[in-house]
């Protein structure tokens, strides 16, 4: 009778990392500031579309920032290893905040001058967004490298699970609040709210202890970056964790298909896109919420591989649902409720939720492996390289689904991608015995 409540608590996320003051302040502040950052991401797209009525113009926000973001990720990792990480976080956060304030000023100017000869051009919005994105990328790589400095090793996997909750909250609340604020109070107020929420994240950073570079740290420069790449070449387990993530993101990113799926297969338009996107976020959130058992898992390589295989299976199920709708095996759009096929929507949402859940399991163990197996002197550079991986993989995935969906059909990229993910992960596990046998009790890069 007395053990049941304890066992029940262990099924839920472990809050022990939050009892470490430095991490607790950083986590709470980051979650609040992250909501504001997601608001700005949505608001920028809406503002540019309002100015141009061009989807291409909106798409250029990410396209223009991609290369600077990749460079910033690599260089930010170098800075995090060469200087005091608290200082790097403070400076990069202030620059990101200035980018948001610039967007606020530009939005106010656009509101006041719209339709006049003094109307605000588009390029300052791209410039301000790119500056904010670059600074946020440096801050993100450095923030991750801070974790092993402020937490004992046995709490890092639990901290990774808590970060999943934070990301889920940010991705859920941020876009929703942006939509409400833009519709009711306008763009300037939305950017202003982000600027205010930034304060919480900044306080969490300022209150960190000093985190100076190790005495053996190399000077910031190309040599330092190349040293990080050389280390990765000699770290088969961390390298394999990067490779399996690239496989999953290249062949299992159906988000670019969702507007077409909603219009041509399941029905429901923007509402369906919102439901499917929210389902993935809900899967991530629930997995993090019930992440208590992660502290008792030690075979990280096996856990990562199995979760990515489940991810591939969910991707394939989504392809089957879309294929069934397009071939008429599952009824037709609008057969059950208005313009939506409800059973198809439910199955697709379950597949997306499964993707979010399994991806979060993989993310918890991959991030913990990198944080515990990488020497502290290399943490920043490895986090920077990882930023390139998580930035580039999804964009390759968008290209993959776009080409195959156009050439064959909407159902083909997720169905083929799911099968490829399962097969390739199985091959990687056979080819990398050290990754397959990885034991967190003896972390080896």
TrEMBL record:
How far does the signal peptide extend, from start to end residue?
Answer: none
Q: What is this protein called?
A: Transmembrane secretion effector
PANTHER family assigned to the protein according to its UniProt record, in alphabetical order: ENTEROBACTIN EXPORTER ENTS, INTEGRAL MEMBRANE EFFLUX PROTEIN-RELATED
Which CDD domains does its entry note? MFS_MefA_like
Keywords of this entry: Cell membrane, Membrane, Transmembrane, Transmembrane helix, Transport
**Lineage start:** Bacteria, Bacillati, Actinomycetota, Actinomycetes, Micrococcales
What is the species of this protein? Microterricola viridarii
Superkingdom of this protein's organism: Bacteria
Report the residue ranges that make up the Major facilitator superfamily (MFS) profile domain in this protein.
22-436
């Amino acid at each position: 009778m007395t053990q049941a409540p304890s066992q029940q608590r262990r099924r839920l996320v472990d809050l022990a990392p939050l009892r470490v003051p430095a991490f607790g302040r950083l986590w709470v502040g980051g979650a609040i500031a992250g909501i504001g950052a997601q608001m700005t991401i949505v608001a920028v797209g809406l503002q540019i579309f309002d100015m141009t009525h061009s989807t291409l113009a909106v798409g250029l926000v990410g396209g223009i920032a991609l290369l600077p973001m990749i460079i910033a990720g690599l260089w930010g990792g170098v800075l995090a290893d060469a200087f005091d990480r608290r200082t790097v976080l403070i400076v990069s956060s202030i620059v990101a905040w200035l980018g948001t304030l610039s967007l606020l000023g530009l939005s106010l100017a656009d509101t006041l001058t719209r339709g006049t000869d003094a109307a605000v051009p588009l390029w300052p919005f791209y410039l301000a967004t790119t500056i904010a994105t670059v600074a946020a990328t440096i801050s993100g790589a450095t923030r991750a490298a801070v974790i092993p400095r402020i937490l004992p090793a046995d709490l890092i996997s639990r901290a990774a699970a808590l970060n999943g909750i934070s990301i889920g909250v940010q991705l859920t609340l941020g876009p929703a609040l942006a939509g409400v604020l833009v519709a009711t109070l306008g763009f300037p107020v939305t950017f202003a709210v982000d600027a205010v929420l930034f304060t919480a994240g900044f306080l969490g950073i300022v209150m960190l202890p000093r985190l100076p570079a190790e005495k053996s740290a190399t000077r910031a420069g190309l040599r330092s970056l190349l040293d990080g790449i050389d280390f990765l070449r000699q770290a088969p387990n961390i390298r394999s964790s990067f490779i399996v993530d690239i496989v999953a993101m290249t062949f299992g990113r159906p988000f670019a298909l969702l507007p077409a799926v909603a219009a041509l297969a399941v029905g429901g338009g923007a509402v369906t896109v919102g439901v499917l996107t929210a389902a993935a976020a809900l899967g991530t959130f629930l997995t993090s919420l019930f992440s208590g058992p992660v502290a008792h898992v030690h075979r990280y390589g096996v856990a990562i591989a199995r979760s990515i295989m489940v991810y591939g299976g969910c991707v394939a199920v989504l392809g089957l649902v879309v294929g069934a709708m397009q071939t008429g095996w599952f009824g037709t759009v609008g057969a059950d409720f208005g313009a939506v096929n409800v059973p198809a929507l439910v199955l697709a949402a379950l597949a997306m939720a499964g993707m979010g859940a399994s991806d979060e399991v993989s993310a918890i163990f991959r991030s913990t492996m990198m944080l515990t197996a990488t020497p502290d002197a290399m943490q920043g550079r490895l986090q920077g390289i990882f930023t390139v991986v998580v930035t580039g993989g999804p964009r390759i995935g968008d290209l993959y689904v776009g080409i195959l969906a156009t050439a064959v059909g909407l159902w083909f990229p997720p169905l083929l991608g799911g099968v490829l993910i399962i097969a390739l992960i199985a091959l990687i596990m056979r080819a990398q015995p050290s990754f397959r046998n990885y034991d967190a009790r003896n972390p080896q890069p």
